[in-house]
Design goal:
This protein is of the alpha+beta class and 228 residues long. The chain is built from 4 helices and 10 strands.
Length: 228
């Protein structure tokens, strides 16, 4: 008899966990549990209690719901490139140095900038991979004579800088408010110190440059006199 009672007790203890862990009828969510809505007392649960069917812990809060995944950290944007402030359409500057026939330097907003004349190209004198070209020294000397120590007015076109970061400008000598002013770009072409070099979108004075170059070539001025 004692053996029989012991067997019944052992069987009861073995079945009890299975009853607690076993699921009563009903759908479970992705976490393997759900909220008890009917016949909760039969399973030893309270109405509204969230519980698991596969041995998980239960929650007695009636407002409990499926745990939400932790929010993803906000995506960080890459550091923005520093913006280059666009300069006004015209700007007065004082020339600090002349590099060659079509390039010089001036201090703008506390920084020394390199300015490249738009629409023209003088023979090379300081190119790192090219030899000094015919009539290059003459063109460079002429620009130095006209610009050294001078205050000039820069006129910008559509694109203010080239791929090297240089400012691109038409350079006006004299007082731009008066009728008698001179654009150095045009003078260099007219006197045969430069050839026309058109690079869109900066084409505002291209027609005048082409006409002046034809005149210089016909009259064999400057570099055109050196060609056969």
């Amino acid at each position: 008899m004692k053996k029989l009672i012991a067997s019944i007790i052992a069987l009861t203890l073995a079945v009890a966990p299975l009853t607690t862990a076993s699921a009563h009828p009903g759908r479970t969510d992705a976490n393997g549990g759900h909220t008890c809505r009917t016949n909760c007392e039969q399973w030893g649960l309270e109405y509204g209690e969230y519980h698991y069917h596969n041995g998980g812990s239960s929650s007695s809060s009636s407002s409990s719901s499926t745990p939400k995944p932790a929010p993803k950290p906000a995506a960080t944007k890459p550091d923005a490139k520093p913006t280059v402030k666009k300069l006004p359409g015209t700007l007065k500057v004082k020339v600090s140095a002349v590099v060659d026939g079509d390039t010089f330097k001036a201090v703008i907003n506390g920084k020394e900038e390199t300015i490249r004349l738009i629409g023209v190209d003088t023979p090379e004198t300081v190119h790192p991979s090219k030899p000094v070209q015919p009539y290059g020294p003459e063109a460079s000397a002429y620009t130095k004579k006209r610009l050294t120590g001078q205050t000039v007015t820069l006129e910008f076109d559509v694109q203010q800088r080239d791929k090297y970061g240089r400012l691109l400008a038409y350079v006006w000598l004299g007082n731009a408010k008066k009728a008698k002013v001179e654009m150095l770009n045009q003078t260099l072409v007219k006197e045969g110190y430069a050839q026309v070099l058109t690079i869109p979108p900066n084409v505002r004075y291209t027609d005048s440059f082409v006409k002046l170059q034809k005149q210089a070539r016909d009259n064999k001025k400057g570099l055109w006199g050196k060609k056969g």
